[in-house]
What does this fold into?
Amino acid sequence: MNRWLRATLIAGAITAAGCFVWTSWPPNSQYAPVEISLAVVGLSFMVAGIAAWQRWPASRLGLLFTIVGYLYLVPYILVNLANPVAWTIGNVSQGVYGAALAHLGLAWPTGRLRSRLECGVVVADYVQNIAFNTAATMFWNPAFSGCNASCPANVLLISGGSRSAWNSLNTVEALVGFVITGIVLTLIVRHWRSARGWSRRAMIPLLWIGTAVGAEVILTGSLFHFSALVTYALIPLVLLAGPALFVISTVRARTAGGALGTAIVDLEPGASPGRLRDALARALGDSTLQLAFRRPDGSGYLDTSGQAVDVARPAPGRAVTPIADADGAVLVHDAGLEHEPQLVRLTAAAASMALEHSRLQAEVHAQLEQVRASRARIVEAGDAERRRLERDLHDGAQQRLVTLSLALGMARDRAAGADPELGSLIESASKEAREALTELRELARGIHPAVLTETGLSGAIQALAERSLVATTITAVPDGRFPAAIEATAYFVVSEALANVAKHAGAHGAQVIIQRRPGRLVVEVSDDGAGGARPEGGSGLRGLADRVASVGGVLRVDSPPGGGTRLEADIPCP
Amino acid sequence: MQPSPAILIVDDHDGFRTFARGMLEAAGFTVAEAATGAEATEAARAVRPGLVLLDIGLPDFDGFEVARRLAAVPAGDLAPVVVLTSTREARDYGGRIAASPAAGFLPKDQLSGAALRRFLDP
It folds into this structure.
């Protein structure tokens, strides 16, 4: 809607309200509430008209709202102008707004009627309203209401009027209006029943308007008689709810962008496409929203619940909006949302952002998984290399030293009788060879414990406890074999922990507990020493934590000063 | 003095077998050799040694498996005394040595005729 049209409409609304106040001034205390409610309701439709024009520029709804507002207010102004022609026109046009309301209701939300039947019903409503009003006015003498000279003349009055004819015509008009309104309401209910998602929500203000129309027919028609206060105060209030709800829903639609933002922000990291759909549907107010993705083989689309979606030929009442930057993803939504192009664009942008976020997150997870796997492979390769080195030492240098040692022993025995000095020399050489062998064994054991390869965790931990410089109790250790990387990690945890106990803790004793739990192996080493160990310190605990992490485990250190140290490695174990 | 029983040295290292044979023959033993677990079981049937000096690390079966096979002699036959050996120490094998049918373990660098006699005549 351009600026000039909006300014004209606003000026028209203000002028109409001003005229209304001017013509009904001074307020009659008895009818003041009724007059105020008339002004408020008339203006509310005008405001809703401006809102509708702004919100759905392509729809005629704004025009219809505005027409209802003017038809509601202007007849009362004309009647109060104390001018015979104006008074007569005001009387003829009073109540025609009801036909405009029926028109508005049936044309919701496009502003266009859907069928010939609806066109016929609306035209009949306009015609019967004007025709009966004109006919009844012809028989209404203003003197019937008790005002003689002060009332403007009725220019349509024929032969002094007839109260009984006026009454009869009003009764017939009420009956005809009753039937037409019934048809209108039935058609609106049919629209409501066939609407889904956003369209159904968008009809809520209309239901109020429909309720008001129905109530008015019942209350003001001559078929039933209620007090003037009920008739002229209750109906406007119910009627007011329609445009008010429409304006509120317009404001909500304008803030839906913010709701979308909140929905995306509130979406937990890595949320499934199904949860994204739910969040978008809530923010958009369209429970029928579908988020569909092209099948990997390109043979069609599937929504988040796995149902096939025909994107090329959407079902009646459905519309498809592609999601930019998300190849092969679309939103399938209520066709009524085409009246809210900005909102749909925002929703598609929010979906695009969320999907991109999920894609990046999945990429980061995949990369992290790759890094984890490669770290595990590096550690496993390191272990394998250490095993190979230990075996090479065992098969090579150690073997040769043993043979050398035996040879020297034999040489010593042979030389002992003949040349004691030579025998002593050979004995020294033999001793050196044995010491070299002992040192080489320790070195090989440090590189990789043969006992771990030979006997598994149970035997290896037992050997560690026996060699430990601090009295060590093994409370529990599971029998059986585990994957080599798990055994090596558990072994090095205990080995490093016991070495730390001996070096730093000043403990009297240490305890080792290794327990198999569902899906993991928990290694615990505790001592009664000085405590105060810091994982981030240079005590080798950081390297141990890295080692545990390489198999996906976690190392926890609890070491309060003076309270001993408890080290726990929680290692995933199939 | 009782005649020394035959000793079967089972080891895949030629150098060790050579020096061990020299040492044990000098100590008065009759010595036979085998380089693999399979050869060891055959040689044990042929030679019927009184003692088998059995390396744990063999190329086909490990020493524990060979010891188990050597112990499984037909009823009435006398199984040889099996002494496991290695360049490693006994503790590197945890409880496996005690769990095997072998009479004991002797580190290779401590091999001597006297040490073997202690197994034969405990």
User: Anything to note?
Assistant: The interface with chain B takes residues 394-395, 398-403, 405-407, 409-410, 413, 433-434, 437, 441, 444-445, 449-451, 454-455, 458-460, 462-463, 466-467 of chain A (CB under 8 Å).
